[in-house]
Amino acid sequence: MSTIIDTFIAPPCDDEIETLYQDDHLVLINKPAGLLSLSGKNPQNLDSVHYRLVQQFPGCTLVHRLDFGTSGLMVVARNKAINAALCHQFSQRTVSKVYSALLCGHLEADQGTIDAPIAKDPALFPLMSICPINGKPARSRYQVVERFARQLADGTSIPLTRVQLTPETGRTHQLRLHCQQVGHPILGCDLYGGRLLPGTEHTSRLMLHASELRFVHPVSGEQINVHHAAPF
C-alpha cells in the first residue's frame, strides 16, 4: 500500500473572502481562487476559508469544500445542528451547484453528459483517475455558453469554450477530470492538462468558479438561490 505524502505548500493569498449573506445560522461567501478551504496538516498551510471565518464566526464549520484553485460560492454553517442539516441536503443531492469554466479548445457538442467513474490512487497523489472497475460513480453535465478565441500578447490566439458545468455527484476533482476526459481540460488546470496548449502555460489561475448554489434554509425552510458571476 502506498503512503500519501502531501508536499503542497499554498502560496500566500492576499484576496479577501467576500461575505454575501449572513444570519444566525449560516454564512454565504465568495471564496477567492488560491485559498484552501480547510487548513492543512502542514503549519505552513494554516491560512484557509475556515481559519479566517472562525475568527469572525466562532464555532462555524464547513459544509462542503472547493478546491484550492477554484473560486466561488460556499455555504458555511454557524453551529453543529445547521451543519448536520445542510450536510444531509448535500448527501441527498438536493443541493444544486453550477460552475462556470473556460475549457481549452472548442467543444463540438453544445451540451452533454459525462459519465465516468473516479478512483483515488495513492501512487498518483494528488491526481485522481477515471477507473471503470474501482471508481465511484461520477456524473457531470455541461452546457456551452460561447466559443471564442483569446488573443495573447504575442499575437497568437487560444481557442476557448465557456461552459456551465453541473455536477450530479461530488467526487474529488470531478469537473477537472471529466473535462480532461472529453479532451477539453479546464484552462489553467495544472493537474489535468489545462496548461499544455501553447500559450496557456502561464495562465494566472484555474478557470473554474462555483457560480450558482441552491438549497433550502434549514431553519426558515426558504429556498435559497444564489448566483455569483465568474470573474473571468
UniProtKB/TrEMBL annotation:
Which GO BP terms, alphabetically?
Answer: enzyme-directed rRNA pseudouridine synthesis
Q: Give GO MF terms, alphabetically.
A: catalytic activity, acting on RNA; pseudouridine synthase activity; RNA binding
Extract the Pfam families matched here: PseudoU_synth_2
Entries under InterPro entries matching the protein: PsdUridine_synth_cat_dom_sf, PsdUridine_synth_RluA-like_CS, PsdUridine_synth_RsuA/RluA, RluA_PseudoU_synthase
Q: Where is the Pseudouridine synthase RsuA/RluA-like domain?
A: 25-181
Query: Coiled-coil regions in this chain?
Result: none
**Family classification:** Belongs to the pseudouridine synthase RluA family.
| Name of the protein in question | RluA family pseudouridine synthase
Native species: Citrobacter farmeri
Ranked from the top, the taxonomy reads:
Bacteria, Pseudomonadati, Pseudomonadota, Gammaproteobacteria, Enterobacterales
